């Protein structure tokens, strides 16, 4: 049995972050998935970088292409961003509480705004590698929830329409889609991808949905951004590999980093 509740552990982590960064309140949290990490360098001045394992409840990411650090940034207008570079995926076997710990810690650090990014597969033929898609909704096919106990959280408008409209002011051509989270770590079969497509899923991946639910429970407003790194199984011309995901992310990194930095600046202006 866990010694602390999820919220108590998040408060402990937030206290350590405040002590190590000297920043009492962070205004926005960013979880940077495959291809998105370079955006941190464009968003603001680095105040502090903390190895994740030195913060209660965090551990170093075991996934290639994902960092293991928590970074505090100061924007030009004096506001602060907390970059969560230590995403825990559900398939790592650490439990759903560990998956939600990052966004809960950000909320405990004062963040009211939450940006979740990821690299994903596409079921839409026109959305090839390099396409950025705004998340309008999701399908959670992990068969679990980060919410503990009888806490019935409304997810009707989980992905903020207000924040999506701000993103479209930056790039009016950004499409919107529905993200499907599978548990992983294996890639989906063509039949599973077809199922997701039939259910309304435009994108498939292994993150984001559980974090978004936890963020809503914590009272945060969430913007989701997906980078298509490949067409999903059955829609792809060949086999899938994590190397392909990393290569597609690296190729798109300069462009999407600029996009995300502009969105953050507009949101916090």
Low-confidence stretches: none
- Average pLDDT works out at 93
Number of helices: 7
- Biggest sheet layout: 5 strands, mixed, barrel
Helix content: 25-40%
Key terms for this structure?
single chain, 269 residues, alpha/beta, 5-stranded mixed beta barrel, 7 helices, 9 strands, globular
Description of the structure:
With 269 residues, this protein is of the alpha/beta class. The protein contains seven helices and nine strands. A five-stranded mixed beta barrel has the order 5-8-7-6-9, surrounded by four helices. Strand 3 and strand 4 form a beta hairpin. Helix 1 crosses helix 3, helix 3 crosses helix 6 and helix 4 packs across helix 7. The radius of gyration is 17 Å and the shape is globular. The mean pLDDT is 93.
Brief overview:
The chain has 7 helices and 9 strands. With 269 residues, the chain is an alpha/beta fold.
């Amino acid at each position: 049995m866990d010694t602390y509740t999820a919220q108590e552990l998040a408060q402990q982590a937030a206290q350590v972050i405040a002590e190590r960064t000297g920043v009492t309140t962070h205004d926005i949290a960013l979880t940077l998935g495959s291809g998105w990490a370079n955006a941190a360098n464009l968003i603001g001045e680095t105040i502090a970088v903390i190895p994740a394992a030195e913060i209660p409840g965090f551990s170093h990411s075991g996934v290639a292409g994902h960092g293991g650090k928590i970074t505090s940034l100061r924007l030009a207008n004096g506001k602060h961003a907390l970059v969560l570079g230590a995403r825990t995926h559900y398939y790592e076997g650490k439990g759903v509480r560990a998956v939600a710990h990052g966004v809960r810690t950000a909320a405990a650090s004062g963040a009211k705004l939450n940006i979740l990014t990821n690299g994903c597969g596409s079921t839409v033929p026109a959305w090839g590698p390099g396409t950025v898609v705004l998340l309008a909704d999701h399908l959670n096919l992990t068969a679990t929830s980060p919410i503990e106990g009888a806490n019935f959280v409304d997810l009707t408008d989980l992905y903020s329409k207000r924040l999506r409209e701000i993103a479209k002011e930056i790039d009016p051509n950004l499409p919107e889609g529905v993200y499907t989270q599978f548990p992983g770590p294996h890639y989906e079969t063509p039949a599973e991808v077809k199922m997701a497509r039939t259910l309304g899923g435009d994108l498939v991946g292994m993150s984001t949905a559980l974090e978004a639910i936890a963020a809503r429970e914590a009272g945060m407003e969430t913007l989701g951004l997906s980078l298509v790194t490949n067409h999903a199984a059955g829609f792809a011309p060949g086999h899938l590999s994590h190397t392909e995901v990393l290569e597609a992310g690296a190729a798109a990194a300069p462009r999407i980093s600029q996009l995300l930095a502009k969105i953050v600046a507009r949101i916090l202006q």
